Amino acid sequence: MTRRADLPGSEGESRGRRAGGVSAPVPRRRTHPLLSAWAWAVFAFLYLPILVLIVFSFNNSRFGATWEGFTLRWYGVLAARSDVREALGHTLTVALSSTLVSTVLGTLVGLGLWRYSFRFRTGLTFLLVLPIVIPDVVMGVSLLMFYALVRGGLELTGWTFDNGFWTVMLAHVTFQISYVALTVRSRLAGYGPELEEAARDLGANGVQSFLRVILPLALPGVLAGALLAFTLSLDDFVVTYFTSGSGFRTLPVLIYTSVRRGVTPDINALSTLLVLFTVVAILIGNALLRPRGGRA
Amino acid sequence: MLTLRRFLATLGPGTLWLVAFLALPLLVMLGYSLLTRTDLAQVGPPWTLENWGRVFGYDALFQEWVTDNLRVLGRSVWIAAASTLLCVLMGYPLAFYIARQGARRKNLLLLLLIIPFWTNFLIRVYAWILILRPFGLVPSTAATFLGMVYAFLPFFVLPVYASAEKVDWRLLEAAQDLGASPVRAFLAAVFPQTLPGLVAGLLLTFIPALGTFVVSDILGGAKTALIGNLVQNQFGQAGDWPYGSALSFLLMGVVLLGLWLYARTAGQKGLEELV
């Protein structure tokens, strides 16, 4: 699993938070030519591997080191692979279902953290930060052992528990909750409890004030959190690898096993399609989450 | 005030989930680390501290200290630290460059930065095989460094950018008006303002670099095995779960120590803003 520290939508929030303070100084546009050159060199470094990947997915060579003419046949090979289709299906079902569960749970946690003060607040914050900061491999192996224990216990009662979908899905929800909760809480951070009191004074009951006042305010945070949770699930390799068992593979796990066996050009084609998907998703997300009329 | 009813309606379900699928598995892992391996991936009593001893290099069978593990830990820390330093060299100027652009251009550049960031991690690491293999550089330590920097650079740039974007440039002008050289003005007036982002970026780069097994596995080969590879191996080929558990705690301990040091300097608010 890679972690996303930021996402396209959160930029507008920090801007909004600052707007109340001192008026922002206009940055000078002039930058040193050396600084620009350096920045563009780093961008070139960031895009070089992606470009190479795309170019080689059209290369008519089995081993890919030299250019031997344009071909689309790796895309054909890819389309014929049923294991890739199956892995794609697994990736999407896990991502959709885990995002649904974690968005509900994480939003509630985020709201609770924002709204109430309580004794075990620091403890809960620690528990929320833990999945984000501990290495994925630690989380993966601890869940692997936990599932083994649960499985052993269930076998004693005659039940079997061998479905990779559930083990992976439950694991994904566990790290997604943190990201959603923290996104929602930071979205509400500027507002105080007087919001809810005002709603109450105007005659709303608890459920009404939640649905009509709090939730609409939190909604950009909820959506951003859900988007983050979804892509984290799509991207996760390490936790999935340790919790999926042998019969259930997602795309990242399939890519890992292919890469370990050696480079195959159809993996270049698959990677190119996934990069394309990423670009389109980011452009859509950027358009959706862009702050309008000064409000995020 | 948080009543039981309100707790059950808001914080409750998520908290229970985290206790069940995060805290409990870590406790199970603690239990495993104190057990003995009986057969391949089979564990049982007697309870022992042997695995913890092994983590720090004590071989109970031959009753002697061996340095293999400490060497792997040292290598992991050194490779993670050097990769982080490379990220600083490449990423700090980049973050600044982006922060100094006008709004439109800034958005475009951020988008350009985010696209590789959101591209699947495995694909990003794998792509380096295509580039480096014709030069005979896979597997090698150099390839591991490149892969690490490439994979974790955006984690560094984004928090630094967030700090750089908030910099009050009037301080720079004031410093220059007072006769400071450009370098001195930068160090005195701008650099301190970017420190929170810099420290967050350092942690967000160093922690995943320390814990990874994927980058070193795909690009590094056996000679750059890191502590993450050691852990993975105990749950794969070696089939030694108790030892793997103890190693995982060592890895977690190093990370939590770093965070504790950070929290002591930045406070709890700083820790919350980090994530």
From TrEMBL, chain A:
Family indicated by similarity: Belongs to the binding-protein-dependent transport system permease family. CysTW subfamily.
Bilayer topology annotation: Multi-pass membrane protein
PANTHER family listed in its UniProt record: PUTRESCINE TRANSPORT SYSTEM PERMEASE PROTEIN POTI
Main location: membrane
Residue stretches spanning the membrane: 37-58, 92-114, 126-149, 164-182, 210-232, 267-289
InterPro entries with a match to the protein in the record: Bact_Polyamine_Transport, MetI-like, MetI-like_sf
Protein name: Spermidine/putrescine ABC transporter permease
Pfam family of the protein (one): BPD_transp_1
Top-level taxon: Bacteria
Compartments where found: Cell membrane
Keyword flag Transport: yes
Keyword list, A-Z: Cell membrane, Membrane, Transmembrane, Transmembrane helix, Transport
SUPFAM superfamilies per UniProt: MetI-like
Compositionally biased residues, Basic and acidic residues: 1-16
Keyword field contains Transport: yes
Domain ABC transmembrane type-1: 88-285
Region (Disordered): 1-24
Gene3D superfamilies (alphabetical): MetI-like (1.10.3720.10)
UniProtKB/TrEMBL annotation, chain B:
Key word Plastid present: no
Membrane topology: Multi-pass membrane protein
Compartments in which it is found: Cell membrane
Keyword Transmembrane helix: yes
Protein name, per record: Spermidine/putrescine ABC transporter permease
UniProt family annotation: Belongs to the binding-protein-dependent transport system permease family. CysTW subfamily.
Domain annotation ABC transmembrane type-1: ranges: 73-262
PANTHER family: INNER MEMBRANE ABC TRANSPORTER PERMEASE PROTEIN YDCU-RELATED, INNER MEMBRANE ABC TRANSPORTER PERMEASE PROTEIN YDCU-RELATED-RELATED
Location (main, coarse): membrane
Transmembrane domains' residue ranges: 7-35, 77-96, 108-131, 143-164, 185-207, 243-263
Keyword terms: Cell membrane, Membrane, Transmembrane, Transmembrane helix, Transport
PROSITE patterns assigned: ABC_TM1 (PS50928)
SUPFAM superfamilies the UniProt entry points to: MetI-like
